[in-house]
């Protein structure tokens, strides 16, 4: 019963995020106090060398939302505010950043996740401009790999006009994620508030359903690039690991939202974590591994340039940005 309630709470929380994807203003936006506008990184791209591979962080923008009870599940607001204060961050709101990564591996250019496209907050949707600024034309991307099917990660694959900017790219997605979201019976049985998220997945992938390549959990996608299964945030979320000349880069996707909260306190779960228990378990496992092995990580919602390392502190971890 408890599990069921958690699941429904998660659906409702998640769907608030998905409203943006469908073109409705989220309820909080209508009477929200003026929280100002988040500043966007300039330039909106940054490069990191991993062995022979260039990893380019490409920012899609930042969305500001009021900090409310429930953003972190089952943790009193005052405790969340204290954690933000400790990190030197404001306590009235949170700035959620969106950063995709491009791996340049020999002749190949692999884009990992696609940003909000034309469906997010007005301070998002910068991915294409920042790709151009980094010297990467969208039609030079040959592979798009997707971590999971939340709108902020897939909407940039198909704009409002139905077109994709990545005209030459093959699209690869986690097969477990595909099976979950593309199941019509599950969509029809889902609470009304969650149905939009299922429909959005069909909007994005429907026109290319026959061509999308689905990969198995932990599959090797090509030499030097493998999927690392990390379900919890969503049923089939995958991270991506690049390895070159003994160096590793792990794109952890939404393993943690804001690191000052969820890397620091791995047992805290953001409202968007669909299965909070599984999300906590995989967060602990991966953070421990990253700290031990000194892996460079990149996180979709980490503050730009979103690269860093993980170090154990007390019962949790610190995220230390890597300068690029
Ligand atoms: Zn996300």
Task: Kindly describe this structure.
- There is one protein chain.
- By secondary structure, the chain is α/β, with parallel strands linked by helices.
- The chain has a single domain, classed as 4-Layer Sandwich (Metallo-beta-lactamase, Chain A).
- The protein is 29% helix and 27% strand.
- It is built from ten helices and 14 strands.
- A hairpin with a 2-residue loop joins strand 10 (238-244) and strand 11 (247-253).
- The relative contact order is 0.16.
- Mean pLDDT is 92; it is low at 1-25.
Quick overview of this protein structure:
By secondary structure, the protein is of the alpha/beta class. The chain has one domain: Metallo-beta-lactamase, Chain A.
List keywords for this structure.
single chain; 324 residues; alpha/beta; Metallo-beta-lactamase, Chain A; 7-stranded mixed β-sheet; disordered N terminus; binds zinc ion
List the helices and strands and how they pair.
Blueprint: H1 2-22, H2 27-30, E1 45-50, E2 53-66, H3 77-86, E3 93-105, E4 108-112, H4 127-133, E5 143-145, H5 151-154, E6 170-174, H6 175-181, H7 184-189, H8 192-205, E7 213-215, E8 220-222, E9 225-229, E10 238-244, E11 247-253, H9 259-262, H10 276-293, E12 296-299, E13 307-313, E14 316-321
Helix pairs in contact: 1-8
Bound molecules: zinc ion.
Helix-residue proportion: 25-40%
Poorly predicted runs of 5 or more residues: 1-25
Number of strands: 14
Q: Specify the CATH homologous superfamily.
A: Ribonuclease Z/Hydroxyacylglutathione hydrolase-like
Structural class by SSE content: alpha/beta
Note the beta-strand portion.
25-35%
Bound molecules: zinc ion
User: Could you please say which CATH topology applies here?
Assistant: Metallo-beta-lactamase, Chain A
Summarize the main sheet. Answer: 7 strands, mixed
Strand order of the largest sheet: 1-2-3-4-5-6-7
Highest CATH level, the class: Alpha Beta
**How confident is the prediction overall: mean pLDDT?**
92
Give the CA-CA distance, first to last residue: 47 Å
Helix and strand run: HHEEHEEHEHEHHHEEEEEHHEEE
Count of discrete structural domains: 1
Known CATH architecture: 4-Layer Sandwich
Task: Provide a count of the helices.
Answer: 10
Shape: globular
